[in-house]
Amino acid sequence: MQRLPSSFPIAIVVAVLALAPALATTASGAELDTERFVPVEELEPGDRCVGKTVFSGTEIEEFEVEILGIVRGSAPGSDLIVARAFGETLERTGILQGMSGSPVYLDGRLVGAMSSTWAYTKEPIGGITPIGEMLPALDAMDDETGELRGGSGGFGRLLFPEGEFAASRIGWLATAAGTQHSPGDLGPGAALGSYEGRAMTPIGVPLVVSGGDDAFLERVNEILGAAGVSVVRGAAAGQTDTAVELEPGSAVGVQFVTGDVSWTAIGTVTHREGNDIVAFGHPLFNAGRVESPMVTAYVHTLLPLQTVSQKFASGGEMVGTFLQDRRRMVAGRVGPIPDLMPLKVRVNEEGYGSSDFEFGVMRTPPYSSLFAGLAASGAVAQAVFSAGRSSADLTLSVRTGDDVVEYSTTFYTADLPMRAGGELAALMDFVFENSFEVREISSAELTVDVLGERRQTFIERVDIDRPIYHPGDEIEVSIALRDWKGARSDESIRLSIPASIQDGFLLLRIGGADSYHEWEADRLGGGLRPRNFEQHLALIERSKPGDIVVAQLVSEEPGLSLQGDELRDVPGRAALALGSSATSGAVDLVEYSLVDQVEFTTNREVHGYHELLVVVREDN
What is the pLDDT of residue 563? Predict the structure, then answer.
């Protein structure tokens, strides 16, 4: 047994070896083919192994590895092999992001995959995932019993600039539909920086992104960094024409977006069984059953960094499909490539023309919404002349089954690219996260009209034409609007009082979309909840775009909502009786019944709220 080099940090070795006997054992290697694979039980500190990975281009190179210790039961049902790598390149860089999955062999038998390391370590020390914990993915490759859904979703709101989601049209839709929850878990996470860098973490995965400016890439890094992903600018996939046959040690990519831009996570193939491969040695997002393009990869250079160094690589040719994203591996099959969701983005900017983009996006919900939104954000960042505070009109079209969901809004935002992409991702989440049907999105289109000035207006004053009205009268309402520069404009609308109305008071309220959404949620209460998918989509029609002014006349008499649809002209006593006797949950009381509603659009985002009491008397 070869002795450890004197330069090795002894404290880590002592900690590893002291913990190993005290931790629970696992049976991860019990059924391995020991002629090809090494069970954890056979390994001993000091064993000399050989690793394989790509440091340049597509050529697989070998490096030496020494086993330092085995931590049994490092996680439930899992063991961890701690090792040190040797070689001129790794002595200079340490363990590299992009090495995830690099196979390690002992006397020609596969031990496992390089998968974890420490930040700021002075030597190339890392963890190896035992191959016995990765091979089960091969048996699950054809298992289609689970839904092609990777998590709880809600990722759209992650893209929104701070404070803008709650007041947005799509934010109200999420609340009304009951899908307003914390965003789903993006994956296993990285602990870089925790314990002052002393925590072992999965080797970070370089996510090569083409398109978008530096500010956009930094924002993406903030969003995806929690999953152990490091965003790096790179070329679009397919830029290298070198033919590559994937084998253990080859660089490989999981592609989330292709087309006019490319988003590709780079790792290394651990093992190939026929056309099936396992890679990475840790999950990307722990999404379960997935369908993502498998691509070859080309390493341009290595980036030695103080934290964890990185392979600078690009995705290449699409050669198959990744089908599993599990706790200890990513696995897929060389051969047929997956069907992608078409996404079209058009950006029109006053004075600068139009830009058009087309993408294909992975279909696994809810990650398809996340990466569709990010890709759209990158396209907007690339197209607009200035990405500072700005106003925009946005139009979305999403096709799901036989339904075409159309959505539009106007907003003033601190970050136009992320707001536009966030609206798309959140609308896709709205379709995916309904409580009634499993829905796929077959295609999506986004148009962003960037306006040349700040377009916001405020409701400054509301007046009515007289103090007292009779049943059957019309109310003439004057509305004074003031833009952010102080310029005023006046609008006049009419609302009708039914001839059947009784003496008393009506409440007139005037507001922009944000105010309307708030008061409707209060007025309808449980009656706003959808009872089926059609009503779920119908919430979009109930919601209002940002450039609208809504005038609503309501009565203090309670009303009814039957299975999510509001009933008009129900007498107050009848409404109370029906609401109190309903036990099925199909009938909900409405706090104030709607008498009349009128709305008009402006070319500006509207803010403000006013209300007036309207007196109704049959006789003066």
Answer: 56
